[in-house]
Structures are given as C-alpha cells and as structure tokens.
Amino acid sequence: MIYSTVSDFRSGAMRRLPRFLFDYVDGAANSEDTARRNVDDLAAIALRQRVLRDVSAIDTTTELFGQKLPMPVALGPIGLAGMLARRGEVQAARAAEEAGVPFCLSTVSICALAEVKRAVTKPFWFQLYMIRDRGHLRDLLAEARSSGCNALIFTVDMPVPGARHRDLRSGLSGSPGPLGALRRAAQAALHPGWALDVGLLGHPHSLGNVAAVLKGSTGLSDFLAWLNANFDPAVTWRDLDFIREHWSGPLILKGILDAEDAKAAASLGADGIVVSNHGGRQLDGALSTTRALPGIVEAVGGQLTVLADGGVRSGTDVLRLLALGAHGVLLGRAWAYALAAQGRAGVARLLELIGADLRRSMALTGVTRIADIGPHIQER
C-alpha cells in the first residue's frame, strides 16, 4: 500500500492491530463528539489562497524552548505506543531524531526512559502524569533529568480517566484476569503479523517507567487498573511547586482549554502550554482545540509558548493552527497510526508528508516564513 495521507496510515493500523489496540488509539470518551469536532472544526478553517507572491524559498524552521527545529512540529506523548510496533517508542524516537523534531515520551510508555535514551543521540521530552506516589514522581523526574530530557510536559487534564467505552467493548479494560487475556489473545490471533512482531518478539510488555511500583503485575488489565487507582484527583495549581522543586528545565502544561486556566499557568511561571482536550479522550462535550485556541492566544500568547494538538491530519492542519496563533503543533493519533502501520519507517514517512504539505500550503497562501503566518491567511 502507498501511504500518502494520515487516513492511509489509519487504514494500515486498522488492518495490523488487534481490535483492543486499534480502538484504544482510535477511540475517545463517551460518544466521541469532541474527538470528531477536533477534526471537523480544524478542517473547516478556510485559508486565503494568494498568487504572484514569490514563494520560491519557503522556510519552515522555528525555535521552541531554545531548540531550533526544521518545522514547528513535535511528536506528542502517546501511552502504550510500544504495543503498536515492536519497542514502538524507540522506533518513533529514532524517526523523530532523524527528522530533527522533538519526541515526547509518555509516563505510561512501554519503553522506559533509559531504553529510549540508549536508542537516540539527542535530548527528548518527557510527559508526566500526577500520580499519588510523590516519591515515585521524584524518582521519575530525576531519571528524566539524568536521561537528558530537555522539556517536561505536565498533563493537567486527567485527574480521573475519561469514560472510554470502546476500551470496555474491546476487552482492553473491564476484563480482568484470564477472561480478559483470552479475549485479547483471540483478537491478536486474527492479526498474525502483529502477534509475531509485537506479541511474541516485543517483550517486555510492561509500563517501563512505572514498573517499579507495579509490584510484579504485568498484564494489560493489571496496569490499567493501577493507573485508574493512582491518578491523583486532588491535584491543584499548588502542585506546580512540587514539579518546579524537582525540575528546572522548560515546563509545559498540557490540557489547557480555558483562558483563565491559561492565565493561571502564565502567572505561575509555566514556560508553555498545550491547548488540548486530550484528543477528546477526557470530557466529551469540551471545546475543540480550534475553537479554544484563539481566545487563549489572545489572553497569554505574548507571555509563554502556546502549543496545540487535536485533529491534525496534514501539514495544512499545522498551518491552520499556526494561523490561529499556536507557536507549534503536537501530533498525536497521526503518528500512532503511522507507527502501527509501518513502524519507524511509517513515522518517518508521516513527518516527511507533514513537512511537504506544510511547505506547499504556505506557498499557496503566500507566506514564506513561519513568522509570517497569522490570522490574515484565514478567510473571514
């Protein structure tokens, strides 16, 4: 199959992955309305096509958190990505490094910080969830520092997990013990390529960054149950003091959808925020990123770095979010689909497609530098 769009990668992922994993990546909370709006609202942003503007030299380079990048794009954190391809986080991190863009490792990755560090030569980002065990959080932050991570994304929109009905129906969650394992094994048997490459040869299948506190539990239902029990619903803005006490690098808060929360983040010294609704996986009915972003940029855009994610399926979508005021864009499902479909090569191909489409869309809207992108390239 020729992969030329994110939809192609999604189709490839659907063919390759067992249902419980495809639905985990593809699904969202409740009726999945917010996830659909992320895509639809972003695609509905009409751009002004301009002509005779001399677009012979397109420059997509930018700088985020002191790091010079070939384009304003990063691979956002994806939990369990190591189950989508053999040692999947390592494969994605290598593809990102080759493309020169940041890779962010999730707290709930299969591959641990140390394994990813061994696989790459440049610093990467780390994403942190606030869990109840503050001692383990201190250890995680110390390990992130020793692994050379040069930015921390603190996810703030998950005091409790969203209601993800597809995960229940597929058997990823809600099916503990032998019955759940049997359901997942039956699904894996229908996808022998994945079963061999990841199921048999991709061990260990454990959450590498929290393995020490799982106390020997290794099954999917074991550590999903542990996560549900250990996210901290008591987290408040005061907990940023704890993070800052143990992390001195750039701190980015992910999951901001409200201008007042954005102002609080800025006033408390965050270096950046990610305007995000967790891919529609938390509060179904929340604003799409497209609708939330302009007001947040107006409130704090000059005070900190504003990143955005949600519904990005092309370089044109990247351009749209930049036109709404974002300084950079995180890819989520797009790279997860690509990793599942083709591994490292798929992620590399995706980044190539995103970059080419961004350059083409810039040329057709008459802008040649990232700094030139703004609201004026939208149709009113």
Notable traits:
380 residues, alpha/beta, eight-stranded parallel beta sheet, two-stranded antiparallel ribbon, 45% helix, globular
Indicate the radius of gyration in whole angstroms: 20 Å
| Distance between the first and last residues' Cα | 39 Å
How many domains? The number is 1
Q: Which whole number gives the mean pLDDT?
A: 94
CATH homologous superfamily designation: Aldolase class I
Widest sheet, order of strands: 3-10-9-8-7-6-5-4
Percent of residues in helices? 40-55%
CATH architecture annotation:
Alpha-Beta Barrel
Question: How much beta, percentage-wise?
Answer: 5-15%
Count of beta strands: 10
Kindly describe this structure.
This protein has a single domain (6-367), classed as Alpha-Beta Barrel (TIM Barrel). α12 (259-267) crosses α13 (289-300). It is globular and about 65 Å long. It is α/β, with parallel strands linked by helices. An 8-stranded parallel beta sheet has the order 3-10-9-8-7-6-5-4. It has a two-stranded antiparallel ribbon with strand order 1-2. The longest helix is centred in the C-terminal third of the chain and has 33 residues, at 333-365. The protein contains 15 helices and 10 strands.
Task: Write the SSE topology.
Layout: H1 6-16, H2 19-26, H3 33-43, E1 62-64, E2 67-69, E3 73-75, H4 88-99, E4 104-105, H5 113-119, E5 125-129, H6 134-146, E6 152-155, H7 165-170, H8 177-189, H9 192-200, H10 220-230, H11 239-246, E7 251-256, H12 259-267, E8 272-275, H13 289-300, E9 305-308, H14 315-323, E10 328-331, H15 333-365
Parallel strand pairs: 3-10, 4-5, 5-6, 6-7, 7-8, 8-9, 9-10
Antiparallel strand pairs: 1-2
